Amino acid sequence: MKLFKSLLLLFIATSCAPIHVNYDYEKGTDFIQYKTYNYYSDIDTGLSELDTKRLFNVLDEKLSIKGLSLSDSPDFYINIQSSEYQESQRNTVGVGIGGSGQNVGGGVSVGIPIGQANINRQIIIDFVDESKNGLFWQAVTESSFNPKATSENREERFKLIVDKVLEGYPPKQ
Description:
Layout: H1 2-15, E1 20-25, E2 36-39, H2 49-65, E3 69-70, E4 76-86, E5 92-101, E6 104-113, E7 119-129, E8 134-144, H3 151-166
Parallel strand pairs: 2-3, 2-4
Antiparallel strand pairs: 1-8, 4-7, 5-6, 7-8
Helix pairs in contact: 2-3
């Protein structure tokens, strides 16, 4: 039973890959003045249409919890960009053949990759006030991405990402 619990804990820890977020904001911004938002009408998130809808739904839900509401005449606009990239593979096994004799040596080494390379996704979320300062807050997220994930898993991943992103809004000045 202890082995089962240990394996379960290990599985949970490894399946929840970390989400890294970097925040930046315009110094001196009065974040209290922002109560309403909307998305740019010509937004190209770089996500599939379904993933874009999932992300918007999660953002709407989480922003409403923070007291912000979607509006046709917003205080600020949200822009989202994303990109996927494949992490260079660092796990390799070296196989070597060598020989020596009478002060003469030589060798051959070959690196054999182990496992598959990770696919990561970067999502940039910008809050833009077009009437004043322009870009006033930004979050850049990086996390692992599974292109074969189910729709439920994708939605859950977006919830985790948005929760982590909105931890930094409004920033503690």
